[in-house]
Amino acid sequence: MAHPIRVGVGGWSFEAWDDTFYPPGLSKAKQLSYMSRKMTAIEVNATYYSSFKPETFAKWAEASPDGFVFSLKAHRFSTVRKTKDDMKKSVDLFLGQGLTALKEKLGPINWQFPGTRKFDVEYFKTFLSVLPKEKDKLPLRHALEVRGSGFDVPEFYDLLTKHGATVVYAEDDEFPKLRHEGADFAVARLMQSQSDEVAGYPSAEIGRFAKLVSGWSKKQDVFAFFISGAKERNPAAAMALQEKLGIAPSDEPEAVAPKKAAKTAVKTAAKPAAAKKKK
Questions:
Q1: 3-state DSSP call for residue 9?
Q2: Of residues 11, 102, 6, 104, the one with CA closest to residue 50
Q3: Which helix (H) or strand (E) holds 19?
Q4: DSSP per position, 102-166
Q5: What is the CB neighbour count within 10 angstroms for residue 217?
């Protein structure tokens, strides 16, 4: 039996989405509620830069339907520490801010390392050793996003498997495309959407992604996020992939759109926004 595949984008607040995704007149306060009923997951990038209160995580959980999942990016300072003590302090600080208020809606945690960090077996053995398996009795899933060199070696994959972690598969020509089969879940960040494609990617590419993640789902839970690239097109890309996979988002009533809102569909912006810096 295939494992679940969840598809989404990065965040839910982006000005261009007012034209390309959200119904006219939808308030900012209702955007999460709306998006979480059109997709099955969201990657939260804001946690990479700032800390939040437990009440905020609880509010996110309350605004989204059952079965929805939030993947959080760990704070940027937590992946630049050099000693085990400093690593543990940063990791504990991030995990201790109250994110378990998401409860069962907490998805993978993305620990993104700078491109200057090359593979060093002792360094990553130490880092993985300070990542707890659970927090407040809630199981944690850890995904390492590495952008440096030297990671495509058995030693790295063996470390991930030993600690129950995985590596993020990055669909971008600038970063290594690493695939790890030794964990019970997989995370993909798809970062090459195009502004001149209404659905972000040509149909053939959406089909390729569908085949890719369907294959993974035979043995792993899968989380696929459309990130960066032509960001204004990413919601359309996510919905196109869900349709290709036959994934139906929550059937809970939205109750968030204005009375005269247009039908939810892929819209074409008058002037596509410029591609955003990769994150």
A1: strand
A2: 11
A3: helix 17-20
A4: GGGGEEEEEEEPPTT----HHHHHHHHHTS-SEETTEE--EEEE--SSS--SHHHHHHHHHHT-E
A5: 17
pLDDT at 220: 98
Percentages (nearest 5) of helix, strand, coil residues in the chain: 35, 15, 50
Q: How many helices (H) and strands (E) does the chain have?
A: 8, 11
Give pLDDT, residue 253. 60
Interhelix angle 234-245/203-216, nearest 10 degrees = 60
> Mean per-residue pLDDT for 193-212?
97
Please state the pTM of the whole predicted model: 0.90
Q: What whole-number percentage of the chain has pLDDT above 90? A: 86
Give the distance from CA 140 to its chain's centroid: 15
* Cα distances (Å, whole numbers) of residue 13 to 26, 67, 109, 115, 146: 12, 21, 20, 27, 26
